[in-house]
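Hi R.,

As promised on Friday, here is the backbone we talked about, encoded as structure tokens. Could you run it through your design pipeline when you get a chance and send me back a sequence?
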């Protein structure tokens, strides 16, 4: 089960806002298959990570006030499509990053092509 839990700022649980039940159809040979398939060419709707997008949509439909929500997720949700969807829905998110993505340079610093990355920015923080 992949679920989304709503909680108050003080940590009081309010209940589930979304739930997705799924099983993998294939287990045998999964690593071999991953080596032969270019995962960047597979549509997001065909990937397991699509459940993050489904839960975000379902949660926002139930809650109805995206500007009041902050979605907190683990490294598995570090996918570009989720960032785009959250922006389109007008909600915010906090994701434990997995990929060292390009980042905007901090204020007052010159932006250079491909020079500034998320991990470097986080490492520079106190």
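Update: got your reply. Pasting your designed sequence below so it's all in one thread:
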């Amino acid at each position: 089960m992949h679920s989304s839990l709503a909680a108050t700022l003080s940590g009081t649980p309010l209940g589930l806002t979304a739930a997705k039940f799924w099983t993998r159809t294939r287990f045998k040979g999964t690593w071999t298959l991953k080596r032969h398939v270019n995962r960047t060419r597979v549509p997001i709707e065909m990937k397991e990570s699509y459940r993050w997008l489904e839960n975000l949509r379902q949660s926002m439909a139930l809650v109805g006030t995206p500007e009041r929500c902050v979605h907190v997720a683990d490294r598995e949700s570090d996918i570009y499509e989720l960032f785009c969807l959250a922006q389109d829905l007008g909600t915010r998110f906090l994701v434990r990053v997995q990929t060292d993505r390009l980042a905007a340079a901090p204020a007052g610093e010159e932006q250079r092509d491909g020079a500034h990355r998320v991990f470097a920015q986080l490492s520079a923080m106190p």
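One thing I noticed while checking it: The mean pLDDT is 84.

Thanks again,
M.
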